[in-house]
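Appendix B, Record 12. Input sequence as logged:
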Amino acid sequence: MRESQTAVLERGAELHDQLLTEPFETAWAGEARWFVQFLQPDPTAEITITPQVSPDGLAWVEHEALPVTVAGDGLITIPLSDFGHWLRLEVRRSGGTTPPLIRVYLALKE
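Logged structural output:
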């Protein structure tokens, strides 16, 4: 039987300009999927979501997956593979009138 884990890394975080999630150790997992949910949306904001990877949880580089740019509304998902030992997510906002509230999940499978 495969193992899985879902972590809620942000709960109702206010997205002003940039948010970096806490690093999460993922060396055991073979698959990862990010979910970003807009609890208080701002559809006029442009949100750029960039997965980042690290060998040690200290030094970070963007994952090879291209950043995803969306309106600040709904539920967004980003699948990842070949991600190494540590993951975090960078979420940037430009435009819009009100900082959206977001929830960020990381779902992992062996």
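The CA atoms of residues 67 and 100 lie 19 Å apart.
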